[in-house]
Amino acid sequence: MAIRSPVINVMANAALKAARGLVRDFGEVEQLQVSIKGPGEFVSTADTLETSEYVIERLNEYSLAHLLLMGAMADLSGGPLSDLQGDGMFKHFRPRYRGTIIANVGMTRERGNQLIADGLVDLVAFAEMFIANPDLPQRFAALAPIRRSDRALHYTPGPHGYIDYPPYEPDAQTDGGT
Ligand SMILES: Cc1cc2nc3c(=O)[nH]c(=O)nc-3n(C[C@H](O)[C@H](O)[C@H](O)COP(=O)(O)O)c2cc1C
Questions:
Q1: pLDDT by residue (tens digit) across 112-169?
Q2: What is the number of H-type helices and E-type strands within the chain?
Q3: How much distance in Å is there from the Cα of 5 to the middle of ligand 1?
Q4: Which is the closest atom of ligand 1 to the Cα of 155?
Q5: pTM, rounded to two decimals
Q6: Residues 34 and 83 in one domain
Q7: Which of 23, 43, 88, 156 might form a disulfide with 84, Cβ 3.0–4.6 angstroms?
């Protein structure tokens, strides 16, 4: 068995203890979001992957509704986690987790369909795209253009830029997207 630092053991055990409590109280774990971050700016090290593998493999012991697996959000090339770039995250963890995996981060209709067709994940989650496209499923079904949200309005108070994007109307929109 690999030797982990005391801090990693404490973090992993805290996540697993939370899972046990949720199973006890609700019969299953519906949501458990685990992210590995250090103080200040997080920089991945050679230990990061092993820690993630340990926690995710242990989560097989719990009846999780799903594992929301986030793809790389930073440029990992040249570092110890470079194999996890792009779809590498899903290729790496699919054989290690037996339950439902939902892929997130930078998904598009095409990429999501491909990941599911390749058997790498079961479902795909979209976040930012929903802001400017409140009717996203209908747009995907109609192969309609995808509008980009105004990032300058993210994390600002008030409804503007969050709930005032109009639904898709054919011929009324020209801006394309992903
Ligand atoms: C405006 C905005 C607010 C977000 N707030 C949260 C949050 O409160 N908690 C969280 O876990 N993720 C939050 N996220 C991250 C998203 O849930 C998602 O993981 C991330 O945007 C990557 O998915 P995407 O590429 O489909 O947007 C937020 C994202 C955006 C754009």
A1: 999 999 999 999 999 999 999 999 999 999 999 999 999 999 999 999 999 999 999 8
A2: 6, 3
A3: 30
A4: 1
A5: 0.81
A6: yes
A7: 88
